[in-house]
């Protein structure tokens, strides 16, 4: 076999000094162009711990996003008797989605579509402004990978300790450290999958059922699927997901332009790079001391000094690493920083321009977001608490009666989305002399009650006597059902047709 | 073909040693180890599966497995469970009158849904999926009933059938006026013209007059003096424009000539009484029940 030993490639030269007090880290960018052969086996990345502004922001974002995910199902929301009191509940069994005060019925699923469209456009806007913010800070893959790496560091130590551990033979020490890591990852996975199912069933009830083994089998299946995928994607696969599985890195380039802020190495300032001796002048040389701190912290195993790369998730940890070094060698921070393509290509410091946030692209995305939000808001405000649909009988289309008249059958569905019982009065219009009968009601009774939160289906027969039928000119005559709310007097109208043999 | 080991210059990976078309070579990239182990694990798993579940076909059967699993048993269990779930409805249908059933909306829902399914399984081949009927098979949606349109009457018809050979079957036979040469073709034609006139279809006045005479002699006994029919004899109302065998003059002449005499099977014995009751209520609720 000629495959490279994934670990031994890291230690091949004596550590040296990059600058006074700054060790040069012995690291090669695993995902660099030269090493990214189609046939190469995966090489392990051992991200070193970073400290600084962006790392702190990332910890906070992790706490907030994971906190939302883990805690949301436990928030209660009182809706009245017979209704779930969970604020966020996807109640598929009863075909209702609850988001706090918002309640969505199956036929209103377009609200979900709207939310997805807004999310996508929001992502476009953020990406055009500041690159892969989503990838670097909030993507679940990033957040959980970050968490898994933190756990790994807790048990096995930082970069160097982990490399040494992987190279060492299987001692008791190694076995328990590895076992502890994997068990922790699995527990995080189980907690993640476990929380997911709470979104689909009353959380406290389900928690009790899970403990006693009475929960529905699908709950266990989905917990299992999510536990295993969290473990595999966050613990094992990590950067492989971003590099090889995720479509977003391929799509995002379409949202960048000259003014998008991307994590960049300011090569005009850093080059020529090289170790810096004590007392040496900074004239005629770059600020980069080639300490490779930026490469060591990178969770994607790339060298940001090679320029913008597909693999970079824009986590900004290399900014933290380099700022730390710049502080130590006494040069201004920001050798690696959020910077626009435009300024990266600027021939000199004088040609730099402040970043324009208002540009056609960002304006377009913002307008689209506002538009969809407006439509959704309007639809929400206009959302009728009562909905009606009419289905004509198709088989048979019409029935000839013994008195020579013609009868049509309809199914009228009344959706009462309010939480109280409602009374309605039903009538049919369009053919003078047509008689309406509601199955199950005494003859001539037009008032119906619909209980709270239900759909009531009424079977309705409309008969037209022979002499009236003889007047109908076509085999299909337009008629309409008018449903009047007995309390408010509001009318809802549905058009349909009355079928007859025709002339 | 196979020969010395060779390392590919570009990738540094060994080739399989095979060469196709003079210059095509393949790199030797074995399956990842974990993949291989998963394969072994599935093989081990399958052995356990053979032991536990039915697996191998034998000459006169198959290995049954340790836990005695069979899909047939599962279905039987499901059916028993479904029957149990339905038991309280079935009992209620058995002991209550149709009028009582109609008052209980839950029970009525069960009857109508179950009735629709049973209708599809048993009745639809003749009467159609929507009970709309075909020539010779009555439309059950309308309010024209040969043997009565109350729930009880419909139930009786379903149970015993029509000319079905069942002891309590509805029996009646319209004479075969033409075949048995009771009437001449001309008389039949006149009678048909008269019968059509009963439901308002105009025709040759003289023929209608002649037909009226024949009708009064031959037909009033069953169809009544005004042609409105008699339910006791299953004699159809001839004045309503609803025709089981078609309303053209030729259809009616054919009816008078042959007497028709359609048959409906008796369902007693084939379907249990509860199912028959459900069907009767369902058909009654199609809109034309009396
Ligand atoms: S860019 Fe900064 S962190 Fe990276 S090698 Fe140069 S000085 Fe070190
Ligand atoms: S290059 Fe920097 S921003 Fe990009 S993934 Fe690596 S550490 Fe994160």
Question: How would you describe the overall organization of this protein?
Answer:
The complex is a heterodimer of chains A (503) and B (290). In chain A, helix 2 packs antiparallel against helix 15, helix 4 packs antiparallel against helix 6 and helix 6 crosses helix 8. In chain A, strand 9 and strand 10 form a beta hairpin. In chain A, strands 8, 9, 10, 12 and 14 form a five-stranded antiparallel β-sheet that branches. Chain A has 16 helices and 16 strands. Chain A is an alpha+beta fold. Chain A is elongated. Chain A has three domains: 199 residues, no CATH class; 98 residues, no CATH class; 114 residues, Immunoglobulins (Immunoglobulin-like, Sandwich), CATH 2.60.40. With 290 residues, chain B is mainly alpha-helical. Among the domains of chain B are: 110 residues, Cytochrome Bc1 Complex, Chain D, domain 2; 74 residues, Cytochrome c-like domain (Cytochrome Bc1 Complex, Chain D, domain 2), CATH 1.10.760.10. In chain B, the strands form two sheets. In chain B, strands 1-2 form a two-stranded antiparallel ribbon. Chain B has a two-stranded antiparallel sheet with strand order 3-4. In chain B, a hairpin with a 3-residue loop joins strand 1 and strand 2. In chain B, helix 4 crosses helix 10 and helix 5 packs across helix 10. The longest helix of chain B is centred in the N-terminal third of the chain and has 25 residues. Chain B is elongated, with a radius of gyration of 36 Å. In chain B, 25% of the residues are buried. The structure holds iron/sulfur cluster (SF4) (2 copies). One iron/sulfur cluster binds next to helix 13 of chain A.
């Amino acid at each position: 076999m000629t495959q490279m030993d994934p670990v031994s490639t890291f230690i091949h030269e004596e550590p040296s000094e990059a600058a006074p007090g700054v060790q040069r880290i012995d690291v090669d960018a695993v995902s660099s162009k030269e090493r990214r052969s189609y046939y190469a086996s995966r090489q392990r990345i051992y991200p070193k711990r970073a400290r600084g502004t962006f790392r702190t922001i990332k910890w906070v974002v992790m706490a907030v996003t994971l906190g939302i995910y883990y805690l949301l199902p436990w928030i209660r929301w009182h809706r009245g008797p017979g209704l779930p009191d969970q604020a966020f509940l996807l109640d598929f069994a009863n075909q209702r989605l609850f988001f706090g005060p918002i309640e969505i019925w199956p036929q209103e699923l377009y609200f979900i579509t709207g939310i997805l469209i807004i999310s996508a456009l929001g992502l476009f806007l953020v990406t055009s402004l500041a690159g892969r913010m989503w990838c670097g800070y909030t993507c679940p893959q990033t957040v959980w990978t970050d968490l898994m790496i933190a756990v790994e560091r807790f048990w096995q130590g930082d970069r160097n300790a982990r490399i040494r551990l992987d190279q060492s033979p299987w001692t008791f020490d190694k076995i328990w450290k590895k076992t502890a890591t994997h068990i922790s990852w699995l527990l995080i996975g189980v907690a993640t999958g476990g929380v997911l199912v709470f979104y689909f069933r009353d959380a406290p009830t389900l928690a009790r059922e899970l403990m006693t083994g009475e929960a529905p089998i699908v709950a266990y299946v989905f917990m299992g699927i999510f536990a295993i995928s969290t473990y595999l994607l966050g613990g094992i696969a990590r950067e492989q997901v971003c590099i090889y599985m995720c479509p977003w890195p391929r799509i995002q380039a379409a949202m960048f332009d000259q003014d998008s802020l991307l994590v960049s190495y300011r090569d005009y300032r850093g080059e020529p790079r090289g170790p810096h001796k004590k007392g040496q002048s900074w004239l005629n040389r770059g600020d980069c001391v080639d300490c490779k701190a930026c490469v060591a912290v990178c969770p994607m195993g790339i060298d940001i000094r090679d320029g913008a790369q597909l693999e970079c998730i824009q986590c900004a940890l290399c900014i933290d690493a380099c700022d730390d070094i710049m502080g130590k060698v006494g040069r201004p921070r920001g050798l690696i920083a959020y910077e626009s393509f435009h300024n990266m290509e600027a021939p000199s410091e004088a040609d730099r321009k402040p970043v324009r946030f208002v540009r056609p692209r960002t304006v377009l995305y913002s307008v689209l977001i506002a538009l969809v939000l407006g439509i959704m808001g309007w639809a929400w405000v206009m959302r009728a608490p009562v909905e009606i649909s009419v289905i004509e009988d198709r088989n048979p289309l019409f029935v000839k009666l013994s008195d020579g008249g013609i009868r049509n059958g309809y199914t009228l569905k009344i959706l009462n989305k309010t939480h109280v019982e409602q009374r309605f009065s039903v009538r049919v219009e369009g053919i003078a002399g047509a008689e309406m009968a509601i199955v199950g009601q005494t003859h001539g009774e037009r008032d119906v009650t619909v209980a709270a939160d239900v759909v009531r289906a009424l079977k309705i027969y409309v008969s037209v006597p022979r002499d009236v039928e003889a007047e109908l000119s076509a085999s299909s005559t337009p008629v309409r059902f008018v449903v009047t709310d007995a309390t408010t007097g509001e009318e809802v109208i549905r058009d349909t047709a009355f079928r007859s043999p025709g002339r | 073909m196979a020969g010395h080991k060779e390392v590919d210059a570009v990738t540094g990976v060994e080739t399989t040693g095979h060469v196709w078309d003079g210059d095509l070579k393949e790199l030797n990239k074995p399956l990842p180890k974990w993949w291989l182990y998963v394969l072994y694990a599935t093989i081990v798993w399958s052995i356990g599966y053979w032991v536990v579940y039915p697996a191998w076909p034998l000459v006169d059967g198959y290995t049954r497995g340790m836990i005695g699993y069979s899909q047939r048993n599962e279905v039987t269990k499901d059916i028993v469970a479904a029957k149990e779930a339905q038991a309280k409805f079935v009992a209620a249908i058995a002991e209550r009158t149709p009028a009582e059933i109609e008052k209980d909306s839950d029970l009525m829902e069960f009857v109508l849904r179950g009735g629709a399914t049973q209708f599809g399984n048993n009745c639809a081949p003749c009467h159609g999926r929507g009970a709309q009927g075909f020539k010779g098979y009555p439309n059950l949606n309308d309010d024209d009933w040969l043997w009565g349109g109350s729930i009880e009457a419909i139930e009786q018809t379903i149970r015993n059938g029509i000319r079905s050979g069942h002891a309590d079957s509805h029996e009646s036979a319209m004479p075969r006026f033409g075949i048995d040469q009771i009437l001449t073709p001309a008389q039949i034609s006149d009678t048909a013209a008269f019968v059509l006139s009963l439901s308002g279809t105009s025709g040759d006045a003289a023929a209608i007059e002649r037909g009226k005479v024949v009708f009064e002699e031959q037909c009033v006994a069953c169809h009544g003096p005004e042609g409105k029919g008699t339910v006791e004899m299953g004699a159809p109302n001839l004045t309503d424009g609803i025709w089981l065998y078609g309303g053209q003059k030729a259809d009616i002449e054919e009816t008078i000539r042959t007497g028709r005499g359609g048959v409906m099977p008796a369902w007693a014995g084939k379907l249990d009484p509860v199912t028959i009751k459900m069907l009767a209520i369902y058909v009654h609720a199609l809109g034309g029940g009396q």
